[in-house]
Amino acid sequence: MLNVLAQTAAGEMVEGLKAIGAGLGYGLAAIGPGIGIGTVVGNAISAMARQPESAGMARTTMFLGIAFTEALALIGFVVFILLLP
Amino acid sequence: MNVLALEFPPVSHLFEWPDIFFSGTAYAINKTVLIYMAAVVITGVIFTLAGRPKQSLVPAGIQHVAESGIDFIEESVVLQTIGPEGRKFMPFLTTMFFFIMFSNIFEVIPGIQFPANSRMAIPITLALVVWVIYNYVGIRSQGFFGYLKNSLFPPGVPVALYLIVTPIELVSTFVVRPFSLAIRLWANMVAGHLLLVTFAVLTQVLWSSTYIGAIGPFAMLVLMTGFEILVSVLQAFIFTILTAVYIGGSMHPSH
Amino acid sequence: MSQRRNRLAAAPLIAVLGLVAFAGPAGASGESVGGCMAEHLAEAVEENHGDLQETLHDEEVQKDLEKCFEAPNPILPETNEIIWGALSFGLLFFFMAKKGFPAVKGAMDARAERIASDLDAAEQAKIDARAVEADYQARLGDAKGEASRLIDEARGAADQLKADLSARAEADIADMRERAAADIESARQQAIADLRAEVAGIALGAAERVVQSSLDAEVQGRLIDAYIDEVAGSNG
Fold this sequence. Notes:
The structure holds three protein chains of three kinds.
Chain A: H1 2-7, H2 10-50, H3 55-83
Helix pairs in contact in A: 2-3
Chain B: E1 2-3, E2 6-7, H1 11-15, H2 31-50, H3 62-81, H4 90-105, H5 121-142, H6 144-152, H7 162-209, H8 215-251
Antiparallel strand pairs in B: 1-2
Helix pairs in contact in B: 2-3, 2-4, 3-4, 3-8, 4-8, 5-6, 5-7, 5-8, 7-8
Chain C: H1 2-28, H2 33-47, H3 52-57, H4 59-70, H5 79-211, H6 217-235
């Protein structure tokens, strides 16, 4: 194992670590927003079901909430893009 | 990049296009620029045709597209976020909505298949324009110091908390907002394009080796193309409504 | 007026912001992709004595060209795209603000107004029609009332006439019956008187024959009257 690591060129090692970091970073960044968007949409749907007459307003607000929550996942995505070779 | 004997093009290959005209100058025209121009032409043609003096009572075709767009922006963007006094921003918001939507929708147009907003140029430009507009509106409707006070020291917060709240508000209102607005649009389009490219490459590779194996990625490709149409329109809507929310927030400081 | 001036002032502000924020980084990231590619390709073609096809298939050259793509960071905007994009959007916004949007929105508002006025007119027409209908209904009701009144009147007249006729007929009958009864009574009286005279004659003759001269005329008369009374009482 050590031999293999030693044989690996330092540059490739760095590349590999970057790739792992990018993947992990995006995966971790997507957890929170995933839960958050689920909460937003679920509550919006129950609000729409309870008061169908105000469904339009609930939908608009839901999209806003999704947009704000999604920003966090997108920042993770940006890091992923920046770290890719 | 080479993953599992699968030749995946480098990310920059998917988004950087060679110059077509004026190559090498700062006015070089590439595919992205052509798509921006196409979006301008399409929007312009739609509104020219829809605004002809000859009008039918029941809107159909192009007239219907333009009118339902305006209606949509008036009903579910302006009136819900700014209120009736936001109608003067309607031309700006309508232009923005149609321009972003048409530059996005080229993502799924066969033969072109590139969302122009996956280049940072338009998102960041529009976001900075929006930044200027909402700050201008805030200063105009509340005065310079009133606007600063209302946005940096939100009412109803205990005095001690201003130590934390004010720096956060300063950064989030004046620095992060335009960038998060731009990045939201940009990253959504980049992600969508990458997704489509991934499934297209997978389909091609699996088709050339095992014919049956291509069914799965191809089905996903079709599904994702449909999904990306939705995302294109949705992101244009979200960009527009966030602009309206920011403008409304600096117009009515109470909330 | 001041609003227009403010709007005009915003334009250079945006332009300056764009230049300050992005001209630097985009310029620093090197020349544009197309320029880089053209430069590399020209060099390679010169090396290969001008054979473009062969040069394009050379792997070294391809790798060289790929470097041009990988140089810029995908998140940084390109100067040319910003310039053309901003220009396109500005042009579109100008067109929309001056012509496209007001035309469509104006047509929509005009149509909404026209539809609203049409609806008002229709409402007015409906109200008018309802008034006319009410009038007609009232007149119809009047006519119906008149007709039933006339029928009632006629029926009343007929009843009256019937009652009159039957009363007169009854009166006639009663009259006739009375007269008949009186006739019968007078006839009976006559008959009784005739009978009395007859019977008196017969009895006188019979008694004359029976008693012959033993009785005088005064006694004879008393006896006969007694007999006749007896006969009349039994006849009743």
